[in-house]
Amino acid sequence: MKRIMIAALAIFLAAGAQAAEVSRIVVGFPPGQATDIIARLIAERIAPILGETFIVENRPGQGGSIALAALANTQGDGRTMVLAPLASMVANPHLYKSVGYDTLKDFAPVALICDLPMLLVVNPSLPVKTVPELIAYAKAHPDKFVYASSGNGTLSHLGMEDFKRRAGITMLHVPYRGSAPAMTDLMAGVVNSAIDTVAVTQPFIQSGGLRLIASGYSQRVPAFPDTPTLAEQGFPGFGLAAWLGFVVPAATPRDRVEALSAAIIKVVQSDGIGEKFATLGVIPRTAGPEGFGAFIKSEYSRWGEIVKATGARVD
Length: 315
Hints:
The chain is α/β, with parallel strands linked by helices. The chain starts with a helix and ends in a 5-residue tail after the last helix. The longest helix is centred in the last third of the chain and has 22 residues, at 289-310. It is globular. It has helices at residues 2-19, 34-50, 65-72, 86-95, 103-106, 131-140, 155-167, 179-188, 198-207, 254-268, 273-278, 289-310; strands at 22-27, 53-58, 80-85, 107-115, 118-122, 146-149, 172-175, 193-197, 211-215, 244-249, 283-287.
């Protein structure tokens, strides 16, 4: 009987040890959005590599910043990661009075994993097919050119403001609560232009509901290889993509950061993941802790300058 009890206790302790190996990937957006889908793809595939169970937890709000603020106050044991987008990492700290974290001090970069390219689209009734034509139309009709965004401070807002500033044109901004209602009003002609991701715009472009004017990305996107970039149409150096990358608390042990990074990059570079990313309009792009860290610093400075130049603010 004593042996049975000892064996049972051993099994119980082993089960407890396994339960302690559960790790979390926190996403700052609701289930079903691209960031959430990508997080679940990664979680499923890194679990067997690391011998752990990964669960995805959704903590939406403030453009992803609520999730990062929570991570900044999480124990640095490497059991909690955030799949963070450009907005919450390098734009929101310049837009909001307070986000509850310091991007450059509170987090250890783990891995950059992908880009979500942005596309410039218009309502088909607008008599423009190229960026120069769009600019000429906007200058001729400064009171009629209205663009939609998925919300104040989002990349679709800041990206269009940056384009507007560079082009020297006047455009009225109408923010929506998400991309879906923005696209609905764009197709209805309530507004006449927008910049948003491939995943959001592609179905409407293919159906004829929207006209594609340019790729806002640094290169032509695979889904529309014949469409020139903004850089090709008079805006050299313009590159707009909602990149995603994993971060952990700054106090996380270095060996844990390296292990997570290696597993994530292995998955992103594995056979088949590119096809799954392509269905979401996502382009794989990997960098480890050092490369991602340098990239974050560069992007933090870049978007700080864009926010300052455009005068964008979110209360």
